[in-house]
Design a protein that fits this description.
Blueprint lengths: L7 H21 L7 H24 L3 H30 L7 H34 L1
């Protein structure tokens, strides 16, 4: 039986959607711009989180840790793969500052990156609760 149940994933998804919408709005109004350096860093962070998540899921042995990690893993992988895909698209194609498609993809990128960080916080919170219950 998993030792920790958390509903912070719903809050993480909600926060990521809000970040994505705000980013898309700021991009369409040309308030923010994307630099290739930011996109490369975002790609690197997403790949690093993907590798860490896969390595951690392979090495998780305790039942209490697996109960914490398994529910969050799907959203963490979704965030990492989504961030990788959208950053590669934005690196490959140059969009105009006020392009609607560019704004949507930029909003999706920041939404996925936000999902990575918020789900990592959910995982840390859950693991801390699991380890303190043992």
């Amino acid at each position: 039986m998993p030792c920790c149940k958390t509903n912070c994933s719903a809050l993480a998804i909600l926060a990521s959607v809000i970040v994505g919408i705000v980013t898309a709005f700021l991009r369409i109004t040309a308030t923010i711009t994307l630099t290739p350096a930011f996109l490369w860093v975002t790609l690197g962070v997403a790949v690093a989180f993907l590798v860490i998540a896969l390595a951690t899921s392979a090495s998780t042995q305790g039942a209490s840790n697996r109960g914490c990690f398994c529910p969050i893993l799907s959203l963490l992988l979704t965030g990492a793969l989504g961030a990788i895909l959208t950053s590669v698209v934005l690196l490959a194609i140059t969009f105009a500052a006020t392009s609607i498609i560019g704004a949507i993809i930029t909003g999706a990128l920041l939404g996925f990156v936000s999902l990575i960080f918020t789900e990592t916080a959910c995982l840390a919170k859950c693991l801390a609760r699991c380890n303190s219950a043992d």
